[in-house]
Amino acid sequence: MHIRPAAVALALSGALTASLVACSSDDVVSKFAAAVSERDATGAGALTSDPEGASEALQANFDGMGDATPKVTAGKDGEEQTLTWSWNLPRHSKPISYTAPVVAGGGKLTWKPTVVHPDATPGSRLLYSDEKAYDTPVVDRKNAPLMTWQTVTVVSLDPARADSADALAAKLAVADRSVTAASLRAAVKDKPAPTAVISLRAADAKKVGPLAGIAGVSTREEGRLLTASPALRSPVDGALDERWRSDVDAAAGANITIVDAANKPVRLVDTIGGERPQPVRTTLDAGLQRAANAAVAGEKRPTMLVAIRPSTGGLLAVAQNKAADGQGPVALTGLYAPGSTFKTITTAAALQAGVTTPDAELPCPGKATFGDRSIPNENEFALGTVPLHTAFAKSCNTTMAGLGTKLGDTAFTDTARAFGLGVDFEIPGVTTVTGNVPAARTPAERVEESIGQGRVTASPFGLAVVEASLAAGRTAQPSLFDGERAKADAPALPIDPGVADALRSAMRETVTSGTATALQDIDGLGGKTGTAEFGNNEHAHGWFAGIVGDLAFATFVESGDSSGPAVTVSGAFLRGAGGDLP
User: Fold this and answer.
1) DSSP letter string over 408-444?
2) Phi-psi region of 96 (alpha: psi -120 to 50; beta: other; left: phi over 0)
3) pLDDT (tens digit, 9 = 90+) per residue, 299-310?
4) For the chain, how are helix, strand and coil distributed in percent, rounded to 5?
5) Which end of the chain is more exposed for a tag (fewer CB within 10 A), N or C?
6) Per-residue pLDDT band at 437 (split at 50, 70, 90)
7) Contacts of 38 (CB under 8 A, 6+ apart)
8) CB neighbours of residue 423 within 10 Å
9) What is the DSSP letter of 117?
10) CA dihedral 446, 449, 451, 455 (to 10 degrees)
11) What's 110's DSSP letter?
12) What is the rounded distance in angstroms from the CA atom of residue 309 to the CA atom of residue 366?
């Protein structure tokens, strides 16, 4: 059979054209897959027969999948071209994968919703959602709930209807008296849209009642992790929330669903099973936290209280009142001169160095001069010559300053670190600062440090650690979560049992016949009062730190002017704790 050259040329041309079209078809599918893998909705859409519609649909799917990342590959199922989608989900090692058929020709991929998933329909999209055990509680050392997942009502006010602030404030007053019409107007001032002004717990929302009748006011309900009751608020709540989220996220399952334009489920694509997380177990004590909160709330001045269980190092309660909240978590990080509470360290250093004994008779004049430093007692009271334990119980500055002159420049620094003061603890979930006890540079500084002044500082947390260390007989290792003790920049050191016994006895005397007799009804309590001058010495902070049973604590009242307010707050805490004392 004779074939003309022209026919041969035509046949070859047709074959070549078919080959080029096939290559072009494969190429556009691969390019589309690469663009989608980069979440480039615009770039991928431009490769389709409907650039605008495809781009919008792809972006809707990307948005619905949140942080999930796609890896898409081009392939074939026989003669049919396909895209294999593999979605890598946050916190899950197993991807969710499926294959969708595609059609391409003329250098374009034919756009259909089924390109994204074979069961997709016009207007639908993929939606990723975590399946989390939100009802997982945060519990205290006795398994009582501290924080739980609750429904709150979020109230918003439209700035254009700020004139409704008076009516709204009147309704909200039953739940929060601090909300005023002025504060509501300030909250929405210069805002472009309705703004959330308050969130109400379920009980408060019920008290407030419906708000739909107030112009410009809208409400919505949402879930939040909250303290089991307002009485359990604490500066460590943020740490508890963070740990809860971490645990719940790690145990979460996941779903990918096809939803329609109204976000109603159309089809479950796939699911990854989650686990049931254990409750977040803390060292806190709900009863003690309530008692601590009630005690500090009785003071108008910034007031803080930290309690630790010496036998475990676990934080039992961390409280500060609203006057202190504006300064941050100062119960854990605020640094102040410790005043006479530091005499615990001074006495321990002197006993350990052998320069005195618990029963040594020492002078306690109303005022004494050491080098160029004149040290008075409060109101210049004088005791004459008394045993060391009595000078401690009565808080005699002149006796302690005299002991300070007999010690080395690093004696207070070294002793304080054995008690945990000046140690940097890394406590999982929470930031803390104990304080600073620098080595004395001059004899005058050593005298000032002996009575907790000069460059010595401590936080309420730091002094609670001191008391816990004394009670435990070695440097405390504080913690917030059960079984997770702190890492420290110094090794835990033992405290000489003889020194510890002498201090505990002197602290008991402080309560029975010393400067804290207002607390003598509390059986077994020992403690130390403290007044620390600051500024131009016109004002003073007040302290009380103590031990009773398996409880060590420190109370601080800013600008208390004496230890009296701190003693009062401590008494309210201990009496309010009642049977919750460990």
Assistant:
1) -TTHHHHHHHHTTTT--EEBTTB----EE-PPPSSHH
2) beta
3) 999 999 999 999
4) 40, 25, 35
5) N
6) very high
7) none
8) 25
9) -
10) 150
11) P
12) 37
Tell me the C-alpha distance between 211 and 448, whole Å: 60
Quick one: CA dihedral 409, 336, 331, 345, positive or negative? Answer: positive
Q: Where are the beta strands (DSSP E) in 5-144?
A: 69-77, 80-88, 96-102, 104-105, 108-109, 125-131, 138-139
User: Can you give the pTM of this predicted structure?
Assistant: 0.85
CB 107 within 8 A of CB 52: no
Q: Which residues contact 280 (CB under 8 A, 6 or more apart)?
A: 136, 137, 138, 139, 147, 240, 243, 244, 247, 481
Encoded tokens for 245: 């989220």
Cα radius of gyration rounded to whole Å, the chain: 35
Q: How far apart are CA 252 and CA 129, in angstroms?
A: 10
| Residue 174 identity | V
Range with lowest mean pLDDT among 6-10, 44-48, 77-81:
6-10
Q: How far apart are CA 330 and CA 322, in angstroms?
A: 11
- pLDDT exceeds cutoff 90 at 580: no
pLDDT of residue 69: 95
| Average pLDDT of span 276-283 | 96
